[in-house]
Amino acid sequence: MATQMPTYVYCLVSASHEPPADAPRGLDGARVRVVRAGRLAAWTSDVADRRLAASVERVRAHDAIVRCALDRCGLEGGTPLPARFGQTFATDADVAGQIREREDAWLGALERVRGMVEMTVRVRLAIDAGDAAPVIRAEGASGREYLERLRERQRAERMRRDAVDVVRRRVGDAVGSAARAESVATIATPHRWLSISHLVARDAVPRYRAALDALAAADPMLRLAVSGPWAPYSFAEVTRV
Amino acid sequence: MIGPDDGREPLDDELVLSDLLNHVLDKGVVIAGDVTISVADIDLVRVGLSVLLSSVETQERMLGDGGHGGDADADIRVLPGEREP
Question: pTM, whole model, 2 decimals?
Answer without folding.
Answer: 0.78
